[in-house]
Amino acid sequence: MSDHNTPTSLESGSHENLPARLGYSPLADIEHKPRLTDTDPKAARRAERQVATMFVLSILLVIAFVAAYIGIDKSTIVYIPLFGEVGALTFALGLCMGLGVFLIGAGAIQWAKKLMPDTEVVAQRHEMASPEEATEEAEANYQRGKTESGFAQYKIIRRTLIGALALFPIPLVLMLRDLWVTPAGSPSPDAILSKTLWKKGERIVVDGTYVPVKAEDLPVGGLISAVPADLQEVEEVEGNLNARAKAAIIVIRMDPSDIRSQQGDGWDYQGILAYSKICTHVGCPIALYEQRTHHLLCPCHQSTFDLADAGNVIFGPAARRMPQLPIGVDAEGYLVAMSDFAEPIGPSFWERG
What is the per-residue pLDDT for 313? Predict the structure, then answer.
């Protein structure tokens, strides 16, 4: 057992355990060595010019980005060593954007390394509740930091940094134009999404196997993901998945007495309903169906639709109900569409009311 009269490390004046107990930092004892920019005004001005030059170059690169975007044809191909043949527009935009961002970051680093104070600051631990004195101290430290950063002192740096940051968002805004460019005489996005492959008499087939569906194949509470029968042929011709993305549906069966409303009279067949599979919020595919409540849940943002009540929204960010596809059966008893969707499928956007 230890002797109660033996002094502890703190009582004996030892600082061996202070770092862990009191937040003591040995860095506070390291002698600060001034930098060249701290003692030589010429070196400080030279560093200031270096930082300002980087910010000015960033501004010029943003201007070059805009000029390249307007002046370089998309079909122009150039040869770049190590890269081979690349699109001139893509290469120019990437180079200007990348260097513009790099120069802002490099200028900020050079500013911090050469001109901002580099002395070590030690903050002792304190209670979680800040007393009034600590609040006043924090405010004073903020004012001191603002002064020491030189933002007010180095006018050239301040102005060029503001200019670089002010112009930097221009390429981002400019590139929004490429989200959609409607060719002359082509339909708008709203018109494209307003028409799908579904038409009167188009058979409903299981997605993946393309097996046509009869009413007796689907029990009460059952659900299948389905597509139009001619989808494969269209995809082979078009070579893309646009048609599938628009025409995908889910087919569910419930007790006819559970159906409270539909988007059209008699759009079901013996309790079998068909709805678009594409969420009306941002276009995520949906197939999470709760048989007991007849709710359809989007896995992306939890929009919830009541399929027993015309697909109306009951929760989440979606603003439009799920479009319903009117269905029936053909002469052979297979489920078919009676027409296309009466409402545009997919997410809402500015061109839709």
Answer: 96
